[in-house]
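lol forgot to send this yesterday, sorry. struct tokens for the thing we talked abt
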């Protein structure tokens, strides 16, 4: 699998003048801080770390030391430092018995500048859905912002930000298809709905790519697959329902959808207003 490319758009998330001043880990700004003087950020969204991975990192640090400095800010209440990024390295260094850890000390003003730059550019730059998801991830995990806080800063609903972030959970092939604009964000959400069923996710992706399925067809496949239908049955049901809804849509000249429920389903026919509803009733009464 080729490495996923996020395109040039993501580079514009962080202005060039901030790249050097804030992001670049310049040797002159790396300090050897006492591990005992560093505290974790209680607002960090990540609540736990994989024990096996942490054990592996501890062994590596015992052998090679900490290769990448952590990023900290001076704690406002005392002389300690608070971790901004690198808590896993800090924990592993403690477990390895180190007394000091290479650190980059940032000011709160610098971090606020960078956070603001990312937020402004998410709103301003024409980023792809995956690039937006990566930006949300950076705000969440590098700046300890909750999805609710990010939503508030961006002026969006928390559910919108949550759905945006979930795009990073797509299988590699689906992520690449989304980045290459071969599938839409709606298609991607349908694939995500089958999380934990990798074979069905791949089958759905193949159907979208090879058969030019609409988002509605993808959603129909998901409903059938979740109901326990085999892959062939799910594809067959999707094709059958698509033909029925297309036929009715052409006949009635309006949008028609099928919605499955626990006890069967619903046929949903859209109308614009009361006048249009009366017209629909006449069409159905006349059978045309």
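and heres what i got for the seq, position by position
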């Amino acid at each position: 699998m080729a490495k996923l490319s996020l395109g040039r758009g993501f580079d514009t998330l962080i202005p060039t003048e901030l790249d050097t001043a804030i992001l670049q880990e310049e040797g002159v700004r790396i300090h050897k801080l006492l591990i005992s003087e560093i505290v974790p950020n209680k607002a960090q969204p990540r609540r736990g770390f994989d024990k096996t991975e942490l054990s592996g990192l501890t062994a590596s640090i015992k052998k090679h030391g900490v290769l990448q400095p952590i990023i900290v800010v001076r704690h406002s209440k005392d002389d300690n430092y608070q971790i901004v990024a690198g808590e896993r390295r800090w924990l592993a260094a403690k477990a390895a018995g180190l007394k000091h850890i290479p650190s980059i000390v940032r000011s709160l003003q610098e971090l606020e500048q960078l956070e603001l730059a990312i937020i402004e550019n998410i709103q301003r730059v024409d980023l792809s859905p995956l690039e937006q998801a990566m930006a949300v991830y950076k705000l969440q995990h590098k700046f300890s912002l909750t999805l609710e806080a990010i939503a508030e800063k961006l002026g969006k609903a928390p559910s919108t930000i949550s759905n945006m972030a979930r795009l990073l959970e797509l299988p590699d092939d689906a992520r690449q298809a989304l980045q290459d604009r071969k599938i839409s964000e709606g298609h991607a959400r349908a694939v995500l709905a089958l999380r934990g069923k990798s074979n069905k996710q791949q089958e759905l992706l193949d159907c979208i790519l090879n058969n030019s399925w609409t988002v509605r067809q993808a959603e129909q496949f998901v409903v059938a697959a979740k109901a326990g239908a085999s892959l062939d049955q799910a594809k067959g049901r999707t094709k059958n329902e698509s033909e029925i809804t297309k036929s009715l849509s052409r006949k009635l000249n309006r949008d028609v959808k099928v919605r499955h429920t626990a006890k069967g389903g619903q046929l949903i026919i859209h109308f614009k207003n009361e006048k249009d509803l009366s017209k629909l009733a006449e069409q159905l009464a006349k059978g045309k």
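The chain has a mean pLDDT of 77. anyway ping me if u want another try
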